[in-house]
Every structure is written in C-alpha cells, then in structure tokens.
C-alpha cells in the first residue's frame, strides 16, 4: 500500500508557573524543524506534511520536548487533512499567495 501525504496541524499550549510559554513552544518547533518534514509555522499552529504515522511520532516528540523543558501541563490540539486517493500538499494551499 502506498502511503499518502497528509497535513497535520498541531497547536501546543504549555502551562508553566515559572517558564515563558513562548520559550516552551519554541522547544516543540525545534523538534519539528529537526525532523526534516515540510512544515509551516504560523502564529497559532504549525502545519506539517508527511505520512501520518511519521507526523504523529514527531508530534509526540514535540510534546515530550515541551514537558522535558519544564512545562507543568500541555494542551495539544490536532487538525488533520487526509484525502482518500491523493496527497495533501501544503504548497497546493499557500503557494498561490506568495
């Protein structure tokens, strides 16, 4: 079976009494950047493109990085777009706006 590319939007909302939330979110974004998958960082979420299993592993690593960096709690919101018979590409959605 040929794996399709999907889009996974992830919003990580860390809670900490002592660490700035932007600093914690940056830890998650670092994980995504180091993964090598195509991605777009926006003010509210980061959208990744790739095979679903791989993206879910990266999302878990990002979550773990935020907790290891000192978050007391993390709220995580996912949005996923999957097509039955074709890839979902970030470029199809945003390149026309560049």
Automatic annotation (TrEMBL):
Coiled coil: none annotated. InterPro entries: MTH1187/YkoF-like, Thiamine_BP, UPF0045_domain. Pfam families: Thiamine_BP. Residues 10-97 form the Thiamine-binding protein domain. Gene3D superfamilies: 3.30.70.930. Belongs to the UPF0045 family. This is MTH1187 family thiamine-binding protein. It comes from Belliella marina.
């Amino acid at each position: 079976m040929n794996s399709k590319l999907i889009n996974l939007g992830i919003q990580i909302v860390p809670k900490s009494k002592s660490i700035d939330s932007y600093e914690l979110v940056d830890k998650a974004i670092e994980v995504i950047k180091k993964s090598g998958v195509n991605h777009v960082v926006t003010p509210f979420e980061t959208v990744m493109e790739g095979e679903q299993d791989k993206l879910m592993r990266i999302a878990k690593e990002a979550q773990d990085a935020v907790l290891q960096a000192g978050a007391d709690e993390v709220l995580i919101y996912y949005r996923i777009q999957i097509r039955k018979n074709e890839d979902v590409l970030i470029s199809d959605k945003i390149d026309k706006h560049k």
